[in-house]
Amino acid sequence: MRIVVWNCKMALSRKRQHLYALRPDIAVIPECSKNCLKLCLKDGFEGRWFGDNPRKGLGVLVANPFTSRVPENHEANGSFQWK
Fold first, then answer.
1. Which of 9, 19, 37, 53 is the most buried if burial means most Cβ atoms within 10 Å?
2. pTM for the complete prediction?
3. Three-state SS across 10-53?
4. Mean pLDDT by 10 residues, the chain (83 residues)
C-alpha cells in the first residue's frame, strides 16, 4: 500500500498529474480546494474533502479498489472539526 501526503499549496488542479505519477493508494492533500478535489474524482479516485473554507481544506483520495467513508459524527454541511 502506498500512502502519499502532499501539500500542493493550493495548486492541485495544475499539479495533479505529479500526484498520479506516484500511484498512491491513499493520498492526503492539505491546502486543496473543494473544486480541485472534484477534478481528481473525475480522474478515477474516490475521496472526501474537509474544511470550512472551500478554497483551502484537507482532501483525502483513495484509489480503486479501496473506498472511503465519513465518520458518524461528520456534519452534513461538509465541515469537520478536529478535536
1. 37
2. 0.77
3. CCHHHHHHHHHHCCCCEEEEEEECHHHHHHHHHCCCEEEEEEEE
4. 89 88 93 85 86 88 78 58 51
